[in-house]
Amino acid sequence: MQGYNCIMVYNRDRSKLLFCKRASEPYLGLYNLVGGKIESGESGSEAAYRELKEETGIDRDRIQLHHMMDFTYYNQDCYVEVYAGYLDEDVILIEEAHKLVWLDIDEDFFDDTRFAGEGNIGHMAEQVRLFGMGIPVE
After folding, report:
1. What is the pTM of this model?
2. CA distance to 25, 30, 41, 79, 111, per residue, from 127 (Å)
3. Residue pair 71/82 in contact by the 8 Å Cβ criterion
4. Which of the four, 10, 12, 14, 45, has the lowest number of CB atoms within 10 Å?
């Protein structure tokens, strides 16, 4: 079963959430969280920090990620680990393949005409708002 991750990065004052605007399928033209594939032999947290660095330039010394939840898709033979964290300072973003955008946390993340994930991003943002980040990872 292939593993993937989604990473919810909040800015320092916790007012914005980082998104990439998809330049390719899946979800072409929609906002999505940063993340990617968990490679063979790699832990989920290692993959999350690696993908975060590759896609945004954010080093692990700028953010403490928390393992928040997982989704298992048996019909697609994959799972997604969700991580979240607050930046400890402002950073300069370095885009990889998709344009990076900070959006206000009051956005309607359930709007599937703008956001990828069939409502999952809205669900994840609500989980953070209501219950916090989850378990800190190294």
Report:
1. 0.95
2. 27, 21, 29, 19, 17
3. yes
4. 14
Q: Are strands 2-10 and 78-86 parallel, antiparallel or unpaired?
A: parallel
25-79 pLDDT, tens digit each: 999 999 999 999 999 999 999 999 999 999 999 999 999 999 999 999 999 999 9
CA dist., res. 28 & res. 116, Å (int): 9
- What count of Cα atoms within 13 Å lies in the side-chain half-sphere of residue 42? 18
Compute the distance between CA of residue 103 and CA of residue 31 in angstroms, rounded to an integer.
10
Instruction: Give the DSSP H or E segment for 35.
Output: strand 34-38
Question: In sequence order, which residues have a C-beta less than 8 Å from that of residue 32 and are 6 or more positions away?
Answer: 19, 20, 21, 22, 98, 115, 116, 117, 121
In whole angstroms, give the CA distance from residue 52 to residue 59.
7
Architecture of the domain whose range is 2-136: Alpha-Beta Complex (3.90)
The pLDDT tens digits for 70-113 are: 999 999 999 999 999 999 999 999 998 899 999 999 999 999 99
Instruction: Report the C-alpha gap between 113 and 111 in whole angstroms.
Output: 5
